[in-house]
Amino acid sequence: MQNNKPLVTVIAISYNQENYVLATLNSIKSQIYDNIQLIISDDASKDNTQQIIAKWVAEEYPQAIFLANKQNAGITKNLNRAIPYIKGTFVKQIGCDDILTNDSVSKIMTKFEELPDDYAVIYTNMSRINEQGNLIDDVGLIEKRGHPTYNGFVYKEMITRPFLTSASIIFKKEVLDKLKCFNEKVFYEDHDFYLRASKFFKFYYLPEKLVLYRVHLNSLINSSSRIKYFINQYFVYVTSYDSRKEYKNLYVERLLFCIKNLYYKKFRRNFLYSMRLFLMTGKFVFLKYAFASIPFIVTGNTK
Questions:
Q1: Is residue 3 part of a domain?
Q2: Predicted model pTM
Q3: CA–CA separation, 79 vs 181, rounded Å?
Q4: What is the domain range of residue 233?
Q5: 222, 254, 274 — which closes off a domain?
Q6: % of the chain at pLDDT higher than 90
Q7: What is the arrangement of strands in the sheet containing 90-95, beginning at the earlier edge strand?
């Protein structure tokens, strides 16, 4: 019998997640939605992650595509490696430390059927679990982070503040066709990718906890490098910089926030980052921070 449901491609990315990867992969296999293509892309793990995945694919999911990469390249390049293999008309990505509820894909795809065609991205809430996989509390990640939720065209809101996480999202393949790829200048893909997507496509919030988001020492939510975070945000806003009157000041405000924080962290390249923004925006405040950051060229921090 032919399956008439749209094909959903799930991209599972991994790096040194030997303790969690099986829970992620089994949650994908357990989806009640029955038209899924699975691509697993490992970013040259140094532990036993690749061996665990290879064994699981052979025994549990032989139709999956497993990209066992030999060189570590980072999250965005790891995602881009999977793009040529995508066959679905919808795409979901997940890190191999998070877990999908068994109805996660089904509920989002049902909502897509109900929405007008111009909605291309659906995001949901998530529950938080600890390293052992136990619920931390009943508070969703959106509430925990104090994020608002929005529907429709959310470009201004995405400029002002990232309010969604990629693990909760399914998007139409046409979004990726429009944007071409994930931005390899950033460390973390979600804010950059969905900021760019929000220029063209409508978003919808489905208020259900359909992902178990694992909080552990190496998870992004616990990242100890604030310099890395602000560098990432800097390149998000530089990449998408919009000089149109109604958006320019929003971008300048966010870029200034990045530069100020990098200045307080005595970031070694803050002079160059600030000069670039002065030339791009014409705002003299960036020139002020460029000159103030000159001493960091020799004595500043890199991380």
A1: no
A2: 0.92
A3: 9
A4: 226-299
A5: 222
A6: 82
A7: 65-68, 36-42, 8-14, 90-95, 170-172, 119-129, 202-214, 99-100
